[in-house]
Amino acid sequence: MAKIKLEYIWLDGYKPTQNLRSKTKVEEHENFQGTLEELGNWSFDGSSTQQASGGASDCLLVPVAIYPDPMRINGYLVMTEVMNADGTPHESNGRATIDDNDNDFWFGFEQEYFIMDKTTQLPLGFPVGGYPGPQGMYYCSVGGRNTHGRDFVEEHADLCIEAGLNFEGINQEVASGQWEFQLFAKGAKKAGDEIWIARYLLDRLTEKYGYYIEYHPKPVKGDWNGSGMHANFSNEVLRTCGSQAVYEEICEAFRPVAKEHIAVYGAYNDQRLTGLHETASINDFSYGVSDRGASIRIPIITVEKGWKGWLEDRRPASNGDPYKIAARIIKTVKPVSEKFK
Questions:
Q1: Is 232-341 in the same CATH topology as 2-93?
Q2: What does this protein's UniProt record list under function (predicted)?
Q3: Which CATH code is given to the segment(s) 106-227?
Q4: CATH number for region 232-341
Q5: Cis bond leading into 68, ω under 30°?
Q6: What are phi and psi of 193, to 5 degrees?
Q7: CB of 324 within 8 A of CB of 93?
Q8: Angle between helices 188-209 and 150-162 (to 10 degrees)
Q9: Residue 324 carries which DSSP code?
Q10: What are the backbone dihedrals phi and psi of residue 132, each rounded to the nearest 5 degrees, phi first?
Q11: Distance from C-alpha of 262 to C-alpha of 325, rounded to nearest angstrom
Q12: Structural domain boundaries of the chain?
């Protein structure tokens, strides 16, 4: 019999931005295979996470995905959904709102973030009491003058790959101390699971380095890029239609519900979506081919492949919940797509 460490991970009930929580369950197994079927539900004190009252504090953790834990011997990362005591989805459970049971929707998220020094509480590369050189030389830079945090970022990438996530890349972003990683999954729920597990590994790794991660979309005021989580998405219609008119009709479907999208795209996003620094204004809606200043970008590759590909919603903030973002995009795109099947 082997002792297995199961790290149950969930999202708390804090507003406007939920936080990751986790706790370890140690079980004995004869021949553990790392499958969901081998896991049981668990519970936690919801009164400590703003998800229940003290008089009825139990909330349920229902496993939805499991990955090897690359930082533990005989360890596994268990992503869970929060349920009420009666088994219904908790109001904080964004995953339960996703209408994609057939995995028709594919998502690729680009997660931007700032690495913060815990001592100075400034992004890496920012001197105390001042500012580094202006933007321009940090994006995809090489060398100690402009590149900050590479060892940390490389270790995080290795952890994600060892955990079995469909990790697709990393790059330093436009501001000093700002980085990005990319993940892709066939299925909206799976994409959300993997972003949250990648964020968990990122946050846990900071404990070793004396850093913390800032997901606020505009943590440094002034002439600095904010952080987003661009959502690249497709469904069968977008992947196969071969029609500019279909693409434009799907894009237009976003216009009347722009405010509903912004409402779940992350808190304080108004500070980032100003119309500057590669963003569209939060008060406008636009789309265009290869336009990084638009709300939705139609990638040039999609056009070159005869209007077969995907779209990129550039509005989601770095602190957004990928479950809620995907759910809202699907709610907008699915009814329009039905006409073209």
A1: no
A2: Catalyzes the ATP-dependent biosynthesis of glutamine from glutamate and ammonia.
A3: 3.30.590.10
A4: 3.30.590.10
A5: no
A6: -55, -45
A7: no
A8: 130
A9: H
A10: -75, -175
A11: 9
A12: 2-93, 106-227, 232-341
Exposed, middle or buried by CB within 10 Å (0-12, 13-18, 19+), for 26?
exposed
Closest CA to 4 of 43, 38, 48, 50: 38
| Cβ(191)–Cβ(107) below 8 Å | yes
Q: What is the pLDDT along the chain (341 residues), one digit of tens a residue?
A: 899 999 999 999 999 999 999 999 999 999 999 999 999 999 999 999 999 987 789 999 999 999 999 999 999 999 999 999 999 999 999 999 999 999 999 999 999 999 999 999 999 999 998 889 999 999 999 999 999 999 999 999 999 999 999 999 999 999 999 999 999 999 999 999 999 999 999 999 999 999 999 999 999 988 889 999 999 999 999 999 999 999 999 999 999 999 999 999 999 999 999 988 788 999 999 999 999 899 999 999 999 999 999 999 999 999 999 999 999 999 999 999 999 98
- The answer to pTM > 0.85 is yes
What is the Cα–Cα distance from 210 to 305, expressed in whole angstroms?
46
Residue 109 sits at the vertex; the CA angle it makes with 103 and 114, to the nearest 5 degrees, is 155
Among 266, 33, 81, which residue's Cα sits nearest to residue 189?
81
Q: How are beta strands 296-298 and 287-289 bridged, if at all?
A: parallel
Which CATH number describes the domain made up of 2-93? 3.10.20.70
User: Which tokens belong to 162?
Assistant: 């060892």
With tokens 């496993």, the residue in question is 63
CA–CA dist 260, 199 (Å, integer): 25
